[in-house]
Task: inverse folding
């Protein structure tokens, strides 16, 4: 891997430089006025596939506002990522309309209720150690319960964009 420091809205890369571009939990940290540019640049440098996943919508933003208040009420430092979430509204699905040459699929991921529960669990060291132990020793035990965590109202949306001439 070669490190690259650049603006995501103006990548110093050739068109179709990568087979896949993956941006998970990034777009909500991008100022709203350049989010469309970031998406366009991602599409420009991808040959086949672009995947964006991010918290989306007013209800998800409200859940993070409530989470911030929980941190404050417990006298805990608010994580930097959460402070950044408070700076602007979360991205919406409309950002992915009108990109000709790309097939767009959208998936809901992680209900708001589940997200809020997990974030509160992370505040407790014992709960997180137990959860990690289960994840690493018996991941199949979690497959079914975690599948129930996807749905509406969703905290996160995932957008999969395939170049139309690719399968």
Result:
């Amino acid at each position: 891997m070669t490190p690259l420091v650049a603006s995501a809205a103006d990548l110093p890369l050739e068109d179709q430089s990568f087979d896949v571009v993956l941006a998970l939990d990034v777009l909500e940290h991008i100022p709203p006025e350049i989010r469309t540019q970031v998406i366009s640049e991602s599409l420009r440098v991808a040959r086949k596939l672009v995947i964006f996943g991010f918290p989306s919508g007013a209800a998800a933003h409200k859940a993070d506002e409530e989470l911030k208040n929980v941190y404050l009420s417990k006298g805990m430092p608010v994580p930097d990522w959460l402070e950044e979430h408070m700076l602007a509204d979360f991205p919406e699905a409309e950002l992915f309309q009108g990109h000709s040459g790309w097939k767009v699929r959208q998936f809901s991921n992680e209900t708001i209720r589940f997200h809020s529960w997990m974030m509160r669990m992370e505040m407790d060291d014992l709960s997180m150690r137990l959860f990690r132990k289960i994840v690493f020793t018996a991941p199949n035990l979690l497959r079914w319960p975690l599948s129930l965590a996807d749905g509406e109202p969703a905290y996160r949306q995932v957008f999969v964009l395939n170049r139309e001439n690719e399968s």
